[in-house]
Amino acid sequence: MQLVEQHRIDRHDARFVAIDVSAFASKNLYNAALYVTRQSFIHEGHVVTYEDLAREMKTTELYRALPAKVAQWVLKQVALAWKSYVSPPESPSASARG
């Protein structure tokens, strides 16, 4: 059993605006990184690595709108999602051996 703690923050809470702005900026960075990665995959046939994505996005306003640690994590999520999308599926016999 896992215990969880839930915090409900409604629109009248003082923290709501800061959380809403951060979530919006994070969504924008994710979508921009996704666009760059998708265009690279469509036109060049390869997936952009996290390092290349970070190098390209680091100079954008979208990246700078978030704390560096958060922005890096967003880019890592995009790179990981695309890496898992293009990797071949694991065969059932390989997972049975592990």
Question: How is this structure best described in words?
Answer:
With 98 residues, the chain is mainly α. The chain has helices at 16-44, 50-57, 61-64, 68-86, 92-97. It has one domain. It is 67% helix and 0% strand. The longest helix is centred in the first third of the chain and has 29 residues, at 16-44.
Task: Provide a compact summary of the structure.
This protein is mainly alpha-helical. Helices cover 67% and strands 0% of the residues.
Identify the notable features of this structure and list them briefly.
98 residues; mainly alpha; 5 helices; flat
Number of DSSP strand runs: 0
Low-confidence stretches: none
**Rg of Cα set:** 18 Å
What count of domains describes the coordinates? 1
Large-scale geometry: flat
Layout of strands and helices, then pairs:
Layout: H1 16-44, H2 50-57, H3 61-64, H4 68-86, H5 92-97
Helix pairs in contact: 1-4
